[in-house]
Amino acid sequence: MSIHKKHPVFPFDKKRRSGILLHISSLPGKYGIGQLGRNAWWFMDFLKEAGQSIWQFLPTGPTEAGLDHSPYMSSSAFAGNPLFICPDALAEMNLVKKDDLENVPDFNEYLVDFEKVEPFIFGLFRKAYLNFSSSPKPASYTRFCHENQNWLTDYCLFMALKERFEQRPWNKWPRELATRQPEALGKAKEELSDSVHFHSFIQWIFFLQWQELKKRAQELNIRLFGDIPIYVAPDSADVWAHQECFELDPETLEPTVVAGVPPDYFSKTGQRWGNPIYRWKINGKPNKALYRWWRQRLSHMAKLLHILRIDHFRGFQAYWQIPASEPTAVKGKWVRGPGRYFFEQIKGAVEGLEIVAEDLGTITRPVIRLREELGLAGMKVLIFAFDSDEKNLYLPHNYEHTNFYVYSGTHDNNTVVGWYLDPRVPEYAKQRVRRYANSDGNRIHWDFLRIAYSSVARAAVMPMQDVLGFGSDCRMNTPSTSKGNWRWRLAKRFVTEQLASELYSETKFYARLQSREDPQKT
Question: How would you classify the pairing of strands 307-310 and 404-407?
Answer without folding.
Answer: unpaired
